[in-house]
Amino acid sequence: xxxxxxxxxxxxxxxxxxxxxxxxxxxxxxxxxxxxxxxxxxxxxxxxxxxxxxxxxxxxxxxxxxxxxxxxxxxxxxxxxxxxxxxxxxxxxxxxxxxxxxxxxxxxxxxxxxxxxxxxxxxxxxxxxxxxxxxxxxxxxxxxxxxxxxxxxxxxxxxxxxxxxxxxxxxxxxxxxxxxxxxxxxxxxxxxxxxxxxxxxxxxxxxxxxxxxxxxxxxxxxxxxxxxxxxxxxxxxxxxxxxxxxxxxxxxxxxxxxxxxxxxxxxxxxxxxxxxxxxxxxxxxxxxxxxxx
Length: 293
Description:
Elements: H1 6-16, H2 26-31, E1 35-37, E2 48-50, E3 61-64, E4 67-70, E5 88-91, E6 97-100, E7 116-117, E8 129-130, E9 140-143, E10 146-149, E11 153-154, E12 163-165, E13 179-180, H3 189-192, H4 194-198, E14 202-205, E15 218-220, E16 228-229, E17 246-249, E18 252-255, E19 259-260, E20 271-274, E21 282-285
Parallel strand pairs: 14-21
Antiparallel strand pairs: 1-2, 3-4, 5-6, 7-8, 9-10, 11-12, 12-13, 14-15, 16-19, 17-18, 20-21
Protein name: VWFC domain-containing protein
């Protein structure tokens, strides 16, 4: 038997940790900049997240990248993604501040046979259609043994936040103008959904989405008829709001494992919400072949 050093096992366990298999709305927590809390050091999955900083949010201000914007203030270039055009902090639903941006239509249709559309990570919409005289004139990029053609997007496993496109001159360096990171997270709930954050609504995902990696499709907020289905081993009483191991939904407090009753509102009957990883519920729309409005 080979005696491997402890460092080997720690390194191996670290590499084996796949957070995409951890429960909870992890992309939502990341977008809110909440901190993971683990039961013990070295654990792969967090048991809860610390989102205490959200209690300090001023409903009359917009937030992005940890910065506060006053109502009427325009989004600064250092916080702006390519399609963030004409974004201004404005009073939104319930008077709560939100960024309003211009609606961008990038529809360009399919490229003609033998042609391709140029794409660039630092531009909002695709570029021109190019029709090379010879197919071999189209540049190619080799990324981790896979070939991409000019205009095609590709991703980098070691840095998934990068957006990259194959362009002439790419030599394997994932830097601008070939690759770029967003200046703000695309899953940034506070950017234009601060109302839902302040009112402790829950992110909802479509059946095909992953709460671990996807931006939520929409939100589920508390309605007047909402009730809790308590887990069998939990008392049928509301836990303390000061408990760190609970989920908060509107003015409701739920134990880990508790569910929302789906039959309290027509808009929620096909949405299953469970307190998996506090303090935010994990909600998924049931498949359309199982439930429909």
